[in-house]
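User:
I would dearly like some help making sense of a protein record. Take your time, and here it is.
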Amino acid sequence: MIAPEKHKRETERLALLQSYAILDTPSEEDYENLVLLASEICGTPISVITLLDEDRQWFKASHGIDVNETDREYSFCGHAINFSDPVFVVQDARKDKRFYDNPMVAQDPKVVFYAGVPLRGADGLPLGTLCVLDRKPKVLTKSQIDALRILSDQVMNLLDLRKKKRELEKANERLEVANRELDNFASIAAHDLKSPLNNIISMSNYLYEDYVHLVGDEGKQIIEYIRSSSETLKKLICGLLDYSKSGEFSPDDKTTIVLSDLHKSIVELFGARDNCTIKMHSDLDAIYANKVAVEQILINLVGNAIKYNDKPNIEVDLNIRENEGVYEFLVRDNGPGISEDDQDKIFKIFEVVSQEDRYGERGTGIGLATVKKVVEGLGGEVKVTSKVGEGATFAFTIKGANTLSPSMA
C-alpha cells in the first residue's frame, strides 16, 4: 500500500476547508440525495461525499456504507485530490500497488472499484471528492463520468451556498450590533445634550425679555438667532431620541385600543385650531395592537398633514380597517401633495423635501423615518400615494392578533 501524499498546497487547502465550517455537521437531505443519485447513475452499491481533513476523511453524505469517517492514510480520495485529471479512476484495486493491501480493500467494505471527482473550491483547491465504489471491477461509460462530474458541481454549489449564507448571517449579526451601538450612542448623546441646550434656550429667552432693549437692533437679531437656532436644535435632538427609541416597540406588546378614544386624543392634540378637521372612519370599535406605537405613528403622520398643509381649511381623514388579521391605516390630507420623485426620499432619515412648513419652520427629516422604523419593527410596511396639488395618503399596516404576515391594500 502507498499512503497518499499531502496536497502540494495543503495549508491553503485546509484553511479553505475550514472556512466552510462543514466538518462534523449533521446529515442533510440535499447531500444525501446527490450520493443516492450518483449510485443510481453509476450502478454502484456505495457512494460518498468526502471531505479531507488533516488526518481523516469525513463523510458529509454516504450511501451503502455505515461509517462516517476513516483514516486519511487509507483513503482513495487522498490520492484523487492530488491528480489534475477531472476524474480519478481505479478499475481494480486488487491489481494496483497503491491499494492491493489497503485495509479498505482487504477488509470491509472490500473496495475494488473507485471513481472520484475532486470537489474544487477557490483557486482550484480540492476539499474532497464525490466518489462511487464497488466490490467488483467496473468501467464507467462516458455519460456516467459526465453525470458524476455534474453531480460534483452540484455538491460544490451546495457547499458554496451554505458558506455564503453563513457569511451573510455573520454580516447581519455584525450589522445588528453596529445598529444597536449607533442607536445607543444617538440616544445617550441626544439625552446628554438636552440639559445644556435647555439652559441656552432659557438664558436666551431671559436675555430677550429683560435685556433686549439694552443691546440695540443688531444685538436683538443675534439673540433672536440664538433662540431660533436653539429651538431647531432641540427639535432635532428630540427627533433623534424618538428615532433611537422607535425600535424598542415589541409587536407582541398588544392591548385593546378603543378607536373613539384614539380619535378623541388625536383631536385634542391637533384639532384645537378652528381651521382643522380630523375625522375617523372605521367599521371597527377597537383594535388589538401596540398602543404606544400606533399613537406615535399617527401623531407623526397627522402632525405632518397639518404642518405642511397649504389650504385655509385643513382636512385630515383617518381610515382603519381589518383585512385577514392585519390592520390597515390610511391617513389622507388635502395638502399640496408630494411629487413622485420625492415619495421615496421622505422616509429616509434627515431627508427634507419641503423648505418650510405653514408656520415658517424647517423640518428635521426624522419624523417619517421614525414612522417607517416603527411600522417595520412591528412587522408592517408603510407607503405613500400622492399627486401634486391633490393631497397625500399615507398607508401603513400593523399585525393584528394571531397574524403571521402583513399585506398592503
Q: What stands out?
A: The two ends are 72 Å apart (CA to CA).
